[in-house]
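wait is this the right file?? whatever heres the structure
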């Protein structure tokens, strides 16, 4: 028995060495096969549609292909396996093959700029404004643009309702705004507003982004009735109107409120909302226009009395009446136009009103020149010096206009 045991024990190292060698060889073979499969998968070609032929680029303004372009035209490519952007920007990895002059068919086409798209390593296209992936048959890419089939909740774009405007959602799908921490928060699937829609209209195209500016702020509370579907503009409680590219919407974390976000420079101090149909606008405008008529009659009468043209008081009165006439005229125009005057025209009219309504003071705010006080009588000089410390326009005039 002892001899048999000794023989058996002496043969066990050989068996163990054989088993270890076979295991190592199997592991090496498995690693080799895995590497081979990985290389084959990496080298598997991915076909992507190019909107135009090689040596051409798609001109979005003309909606056709134009000869020319740059050599490095390919959009940014994201490689999921490496978790990074392809290093050679403007070029494509070797496994991507571009099919020239091939565009999506049988659908409505939407154009996206190159900064709104990201080409994935598997051939799909990521739309940053939609937070969605598009398969390769439904798009084509070219220099600075991508033409994509418009889809509406899986419905073919030819059957979907026509989109008349675009509304931006700030954070993204299934996100909400946490006001206490001033940040966007991802909603759990158990949240009551998960997969909810902020805008219910089928004619509004929803995208995801903030307005283009440095600082954003909450402008007000969104009410569906204040949204203009044909233009995408929205009105808040203060009466301020924001164009479709000046705001974005996002729901609150409690799921009960939807905020209107806008750029800080677009926000104005709160004012009492007044509709353009308010009868006060008509009364103000009528009163101002009547005063303009009588001021013009006063000027005409003064010019007819030629014997007073050399008198200094007549000249002061003429300038005073002329300034009031111009100021009242522009003020009537502003009252009649409502919110239609914007931009440089609004600024110019405001400055003209300020110059003309403040002209009768000792110092003209527009020219910076002073009235020649020594040439006035002592009585007139005291009156003018006294009036320079008070509003140039009488109190009754100020109260009337405010």
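ok assuming it is, sequence goes like this
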């Amino acid at each position: 028995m002892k001899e048999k045991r000794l023989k058996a024990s002496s043969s066990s190292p050989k068996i163990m060495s054989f088993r270890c060698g076979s295991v190592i060889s199997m592991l090496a073979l498995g690693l080799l096969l895995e590497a081979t499969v990985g290389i084959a998968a990496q080298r598997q070609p991915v076909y992507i549609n190019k909107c135009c032929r090689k040596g051409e680029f798609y001109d979005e303004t003309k909606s056709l292909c134009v000869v020319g372009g740059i050599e490095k035209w390919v959009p940014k490519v994201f490689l999921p396996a490496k978790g990074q952007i392809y290093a050679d920007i403007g070029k494509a990895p070797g496994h991507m093959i571009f099919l020239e002059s091939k565009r999506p068919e049988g659908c409505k086409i939407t154009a996206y700029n190159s900064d709104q798209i990201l080409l994935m390593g598997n051939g799909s296209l990521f739309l940053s404004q939609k937070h969605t992936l598009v398969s390769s048959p439904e798009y084509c890419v070219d220099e600075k643009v991508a033409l994509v089939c418009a889809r509406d909740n899986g419905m073919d774009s030819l059957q979907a309702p026509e989109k008349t405007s675009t509304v931006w959602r700030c954070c993204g799908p299934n996100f909400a705004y946490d006001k206490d921490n001033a940040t966007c928060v991802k909603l759990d699937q158990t949240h009551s507003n998960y997969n909810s829609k902020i805008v219910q209209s089928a004619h509004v195209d929803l995208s995801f982004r903030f307005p283009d500016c440095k600082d954003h702020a909450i402008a007000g509370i969104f009410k569906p009735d204040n949204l203009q579907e044909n233009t995408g503009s929205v009105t808040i409680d203060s009466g301020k109107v924001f164009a479709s590219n000046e705001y974005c919407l996002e729901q609150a974390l409690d799921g009960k409120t939807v905020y209107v976000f806008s750029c800080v420079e677009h926000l104005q101090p709160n004012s009492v909302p007044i509709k353009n149909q308010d009868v006060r606008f008509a009364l103000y405008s009528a009163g101002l226009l009547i005063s303009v008529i009588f001021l013009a009659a006063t000027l005409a009468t003064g010019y007819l009395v030629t014997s007073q043209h050399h008198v200094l008081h007549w000249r002061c009165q003429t300038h005073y009446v002329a300034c009031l006439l111009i100021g009242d005229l522009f003020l009537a125009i502003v009252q009649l136009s409502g919110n239609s005057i914007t931009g440089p025209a609004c600024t110019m009219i405001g400055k003209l009103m300020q110059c003309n309504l403040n002209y009768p003071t000792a110092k003209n705010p527009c020219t910076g020149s002073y009235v020649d006080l020594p040439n006035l009588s002592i009585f007139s000089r005291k009156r003018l010096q006294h009036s320079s410390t008070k509003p140039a326009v009488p109190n009754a005039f100020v109260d009337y206009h405010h």
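Helices lie at 2-43, 279-304, 312-337, 344-357, 378-387, 395-401. so i think its the right one actually
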